[in-house]
Amino acid sequence: MHRRFLLLAVSFLLSLNAGLHAQDPEAIARGKKALETRAFTPAPWSFDAYLNAWKHWQPKLEQAPADYDQAFRDYYGLHPAPFENGRYPMGLRPGQFLFVKGLATDCMLCHGGSIMGKSYVGLGNSSLDIQAFFEDLNRASGLSGKLPFTFSHVRGTSEAGGMAVYLHSFRNPDLSLRFDRHKWELKDNLCEDAPAWWLLKKKKTMYHTGGADARSVRSIMQFMLTPNNGPTVFERDEPVFKDIQAYLLSLEAPRYPFPIDAKLADTGHQLFDRKCASCHGTYGKEWTYPNKVVPLKVIGTDPNRFYGLPVKLGEFYNESWFAKEKPTGYKSLETAGYQAPPLDGVWATAPYFHNGSVPTLYDVLNSKARPKLFTRSFRTDEAAYDKVKVGWKVEMVTEIPKDAPPHRRRMYYDTTQPGRGNMGHTFGDDLTDEQRWAIVEYLKTL
Q: Rounded to 5 degrees, what are φ and ψ at 289?
């Protein structure tokens, strides 16, 4: 009797979880269309800003490059759109501010990436120089190139946490604008690598610390907090973002495109299930995911992102429109560390750790092999990909060129700097090298 009751209870709970992510084809189609065709923030730049951005590149050019669209993408780390977007890359699109048309950004600036030279909506953009992008487009529109805080210290990462603090600081709980913004401490050394959207379907909590409920629609609307968007815009677009969320939950990870050693992968599968599955879950038709937040003292990775958001912001968020979503509201959550993510498509999501400090899967499993100061091409074609270690090919260096312009300096990852540490996650250090290679081979199959 007790066993039957337990089975019924488990079945009921599983059906509830499945209901959270039940797929509605019409909602998915609407969400896809909205994400690929709409700008949700006002356009801050003129169309000419795109055409004239090259005038602010370093080193200085005498004339625009011949294949300008490609050169623009390469310079800022952007990618061709896998949908109709005119001449513009993912992340940039026509929009308007009041009655004036111009260029706006969208979600794919950070969440539209490329692997093996192919673009994917939902793959984190590990090539983006968001600092140069905003500085140069501002200058090319006749604005000051000075940003209110540092958007990125190292290419491929952003200060997303700082952006959240800054944007919320201009709002009252009902999202009306304040005349005097909140004076919360804003740190710009959190160094965040954008996670893949296709992982959301397995998660109950999201963001690097697991600090938000993954069911929340309003939470994914925070980027709209530019002061030009009033409270009515959020109310109007909430149903649209419910459809966008449905689309995000429908995304699938790309499959590894090269041959896999099946026998070695099978050995790695067994090792993974014993060594890694308790945090990262199991895979296949009967997959499991524990949604585990690993305490900071256990995981040992760079602590800046964990400590980086002010307590006052969390308190404000929990009193704001964002936390009062029906039916019961989704408040921000206090956690003890970092969420161990699902690993679907992990081969495509290099670099690794929440701050992008580890370039390959082999390095994840061998903390002693991790490079301390390195650079890479920031291209995403096959030549830039390390098929052996699985991740990006890097060049280890002893110092950053002192006379390099800021755009070039951000191409170097210095793991001794605040927020960029590559310590922690030493769980693979007690493996033999043969065992590490077996697990790496298995990870290619996910």
A: -145, 115
